Amino acid sequence: MLARVCRSESSSARLISTRLIYRRVAEKGTIRKRLPSLPVHCSGRKGTFEGESLKLQSGFHYIKSLEDAIGLFDDMVRSRPLYSAIDFNKLIGVFVKMDRPDVSISLYQKMEIRRIPLDIYSFNILIKCFCECHKLSFALSTFGKITKLGFQPDIVTFNTLLHGLCLEDRISEAVALFDHMVETGCTPDVVTFTTLMNGLCREGRVLQAVALVDRMVEKGHQPNLVTYGTIVNGMCKISDTDSALNLLRKMEERHIKANVVIYNAIIDRLCKDGHHIDARNLFTEMHDKGIFPDVHTYNCMIDACCSSGRWIDAKQLLRDMIERQINPDVVTFNALINAFVKEGKLVEAEKLYEEMLRRGIFPDTITYNSMIDGFCKQNRLDDAKRMFDSIASKGCSPNVVTCNTLINGYCKAKRVDDGMEIFCEMHRRGIVATTVTYNTLIHGFCQIGDLNAAQDLLNEMISSSVAPDYITFHGMLAGLCRKKELRKAVAMLVDLQQSVDHQLENE
To answer: Cellular component GO terms, alphabetically (predicted)?
Structure first.
């Protein structure tokens, strides 16, 4: 069983390969001078370390910076008698708190070179650091070496490695490790079960996760709020809101109070599936039970109201959240602005846009796309272009949707040359034109009778490996027929038929 889990380079890998980072640093003994300049590249985040006081065999040591910690480590490895593994673990635990798992790995390497003994807690820290650095093969190798050195993996060892496997979406291996854990007599705890359930749910294996809850109860562990939240979230991801709601009721029976995160997951899924009345009832239930909605809850409800045309309810929800001192965010305003634009209510959309700016909420590309779409629909193309030009100065970048929207506005107004300017701008910005882009411009040129330009665009489209579709050829054929270019129209139909036949043969 263990071989299934530790199959990648576990038998021959050193505990910490000398090919790892800082090999030269360790060999030259210059860690104190060299390590502080190393970048954080493993955990992907920067923690706010505020200093820590350590009680070691030599007394109390206050560490306020990375340099202090490295200096203390250098003193400890030179000290005689040697510090215990417990003391070294305490110190290296500080590097973990600093979000420097890379440094922790390097220091354990130096300990191995100097033959400083490690204990099971040392290995647990090392496995955690490898997992945070996305070096899972080394974590598995370390796990495989634990028993070879006479140590017994404990619950922390298994939980840490399970978490690492699940983070890398290696769920089948996580399940195998869980089975191996049980076989070796190490009793899973709530963290074990919840970690594996979360991994299963992320992979859509919700039924297996639910079965794991029953197994958890059999082992004498009661599911907690995190456990239920994991399962509810998994059920909502596969649109099984009925089961999620049943689980919510089961929580009530067991006197476990659901939190806003669990309610948000169900409300969000109900809204996305169009069950707006059920979402509204659950939203009301939250209030009745003293569970206060947050900005995500309101965003789900506002978006649902907008998509069903309930403008008054959407505005009321916005007023509600402001009264409750829940600050709306860019997602809130985007939902409202997009809905108003689609309904032709550009004045309301503009007011909301101004309100965003007054509140110091920075619009994003989605906001600008909606506003530009609104201006184009009202034939306010100069306003649309001004907003397009201002996007970069606002810290955003237009995307293909932005460009397609403005090109469409210009082409509908028969300002195809202006549309071509945006098309050229796309190339300058590295935005790849799509079938929609080409179709819009081809149709625009056909509308104004410039079939040569339309044909040139079609040729460029094909040479750029952008596949024409029915709309492309329909636009070209309509333009040719209007110009009474019937021979060219027939020739295009023949080419189109041959292209379709060729595709069918290849299939």
So the answer is: chloroplast
